[in-house]
Amino acid sequence: MTVLVYTAIALGSLVFVIASAARAVLYARSPMHLRWELYPVPHEHPDRVSHGGSYFEQSEWWKQPRERRFRGELAVMVPEVLFLKALREHNPKLWRRSFPFHGGLYLLAGAGAGLLVLAAVSRLAGTAWLDGAAGHVARWTVAGVGAAGLALAVSGALALLHRRMQDPALRAFTTAGDIFNLLFFVMALGTLGAGYAARPPGSADALGIAIGILSWDASVQVPRVLAAGLVATAALAAYIPLTHMSHFIGKYFTYHAIRWDDAPFGDSRKMSVALAASLAQRPTWAAEHMKADGHSTWADVVTTNPTDEAGR
Amino acid sequence: MPTVELNGKPYEVDENGFLAQPLIWNDNVAADLATTEGITAMTDEHWVLVRYIRDYYLKFGIAPMVRKLCKETGNTLTHVYELFPSGPANGACKVAGLPKPTGCV
Amino acid sequence: MTRRARMPDMARRDREPLFRVDPAALPPLSPEPQAPPRPVSPARVASGAEGYDLDGTRVLALPNPTSPEEEDALVRAFLSGLEKLFSRENNWTFLQPLLLSMEHCAHCQTCSEACHVFESSGRAEIYRPTYRSEVFRRLYFEYVKGGGLISAWQHGTVELNWPLVARLAELAYRCNLCRRCAQTCPIGVDNGLIAHEIRKLFSQELGIAPKELHAAGSMLQLKSGSSTGMIPAAVKDNVQFIDEEMTEKTGLAAETPWDVEGADILLIHNAGEVLAWPENPGAFGVILNAAGVSWTMSSDIAGYDSVNYGLWYDDAQLARVALLHAEIARKLNVKKIVIGECGHAHKSLLVVADRLLTGDLRVPRESALTVLRDIVVSGRLRLDPGRNDFPVTLHDPCNMVRLMGVVEPQREILRRVCPQFREMHPHGVDNYCCGGGSGFAIMSGHGFEDWRSDVAGRKKLQQILDAFSDCLSTSIPKYVCAPCSNCKGQIRDLLAHHGAWKQHRILYGGLAELIVNAMADVRPGFIEWEWR
Ligand code: SF4
Ligand code: SF4
Prior knowledge:
The structure holds 3 protein chains of 3 kinds.
Chain A (H helix, E strand, L loop, with lengths): L1 H27 L17 H4 L20 H14 L1 H6 L1 H34 L7 H34 L1 H5 L3 H22 L8 H10 L8 H16 L7 H13 L9 H11 L18 H5 L10
Helix pairs in contact in A: 1-10, 5-6, 5-9, 6-8, 8-10
Chain B lengths: L2 E4 L2 E4 L14 H8 L9 H17 L5 H8 L3 H7 L3 H9 L10
Antiparallel strand pairs in B: 1-2
Helix pairs in contact in B: 1-5, 2-3
Chain C lengths: L41 H5 L21 H18 L2 H4 L3 H9 L12 H5 L8 H16 L4 H7 L6 H10 L8 H5 L6 H16 L7 H11 L7 H19 L14 E4 L2 H6 L2 H12 L4 E2 L13 H4 L1 H18 L3 E4 L3 H9 L13 E3 H11 L13 E3 L13 H10 L3 E2 L25 H9 L1 H10 L10 E4 L3 H13 L2 H5 L1 E4 L2 H6 L15
Parallel strand pairs in C: 1-2, 1-3, 3-4, 5-6, 5-7, 7-8
Bound molecules: iron/sulfur cluster (SF4) (2 copies).
One iron/sulfur cluster (SF4) binds next to loops of chain C.
């Protein structure tokens, strides 16, 4: 039983990491796309960011040094990631439900990471310090953050579910999967919270289980409901990156690789190579004017004038 | 191509009501097409504009610039709109039997 | 007819539209315009219902299959195009953005509130940015990603048949590609891009595109040199006429230099300007000559027409025209290409084609707005802003502003030459599209011109009325400055459709005209207050 829980947690984490990475790699390896940025682009010069301007506002822009201020990006990314700023601005009603949900997940992830750190320290330095003042503070902090995270995430998910059912515009686009996803959160995290709150006295607490995993100690007693919650949460973690909820990865790319990708070709070698590779691809589009037969490359296709009587 | 009946005669036109075969155009056709502009009787003023457009089209294959049209026929643009409520391109050119102008005009 | 169309309605086999615009039921405008009576277009009466109706208008001449076999063949062609859209060899140009927009929508509907088409239609479901995307997304998961039960349950399904394909093709042309929705999406999903990709699928695989954009657009341009049909001789003849006009009007000798090798600037206008708004290229000539700039125009095929309609519906056509433009600049050995007042030409040659041009085709390319700004700011022209003492507001063409970040140069100019300049709200990168974006301004037939004035342009009309709310009286002439040919065409039709010139004396025009109108060395009255 205990080993089963350990295995589930390990597998869930592994799938989460691998599937997330696979997605990121898939996007990162996509061929260079044509430019499709959207202003404001925050790494521009601050004078221009304020009105959403680009380097095209400079005369002979190619002669000017190019601004690329990471600080500007951070100023957008941090509030976006932490507080879902765009949603707050453009859809405050939903934000009031979505923010607790996501905030709860962040707290939970933080608590999980905290647990791992405490467990690792304890494995290396023994568990005696945990009974000292520092140990107490650390354990209670993690427990508090985790509990708050669970409460927020579960109530946020319920609020989202309620809104989805009740707002006709949302309902029209809601699939069975959408409902399942939210219910999955409620059930997994709810069970986890309930199991933790109702664990019999003397049974393993969160830290005990974390230490148990790191040492793969099968003698740790995980109470049933808590075990169920842990397994469900592990399954949830594995499930997320397989769905559109992987938007935490997608979002990185939609912002950095598309909305903010204003890199001019200039004399970039990397882009030349990428373009050459793409122009060597052989399209098979069937429309007559495309003049694509599967043999011609893109380079051939775009240098063919489809109105030439002589053809190709 | 849709067909419309104008003054009892059938014409093949595009979806904007422009003549499908510009070469069948003659004065009677023009008068028939004019009804789609709400013009019941073509006046001399109408004819001056229509003939100028027609001649230009036969020479260059496109409609004349509106400004050139006004200048060389001695009309203000407002007056052209009074004569052809849909304007020079969609009204006068249509009556002159041109295909619909293309491009960002 | 149902207002709340659902996704399955796309596949309906009856001939009723999913939505029909009832002008009286649209969101009210204030002050309510008195639309002038218009002659009824006979073709509308004549063309009965054929094909499957989306919303009572149409821009495509879709095939009209008469047997189930023909329908099947078309659906199969659609599916093969769908697959190609997601393959590297066929769609490397936009694969990454497309995948990201397909996979991550959270169905939160934040984007809907940003869309002027959706709002101005009285929130018709079919115009919701996500409606089109979601239908397409479901097809993607089912037919590209393999589908299956789990996928159907996770992503939903929609019945695929010819009526749905036909309506989807039309629906791709009810979006202006303004991407205002994408700006508000918390995840960065781009419904405008999805519409763009659907258009590409139909054009590149099935050869289906509005004739204004394709047959009489990019194809005509590749053949004759301009989508207006102007051959080189015609454009020279017309520009000569403009030069004469300008000389007469301004009192300054105007002469357009043609095909000057080694000039600093190769100026490429949208050729529509020459035909429909000649005072704009005319004003450019006056300004450049007065400022002593070394410039030229080109009479080479496509060298005198900056349009590139491929941007809106077809990557091959986009690349072909961009290559022509670059090639001409290379041959003339000019220092840079400057694009006149045309938004999509800016975006296509300066931005999108930037990753298509190689080697010596990489001629530097700049916006005319920065060139004009520099001249105005430099003090090389003697300017008398008092001559522009009438209310002026500015329309921000999406392609130049939200999609390219050229926001301030036009404002720097207006602040200097127009004492009564006032902004619309919202403006800049948050602007609303004029309703003519992505080629709508030049598309008509089957009532589409009414649709884009009643629905797509409604928000812009309200913005214009609001910007002038303190001076709507006919005794005060007012000017909407739209530095883009496509926007000008739409605003012309929009103002005419709603009678805004007659009722409020609201005129529209370009930016260069306002500069020349303020030039102290030019005879007063360059801008003619006459409807055009
Ligand atoms: S596109 Fe973006 S804003 Fe629109 S529903 Fe999807 S996630 Fe929400
Ligand atoms: S791109 Fe513009 S027109 Fe198209 S759906 Fe988005 S907001 Fe609406």
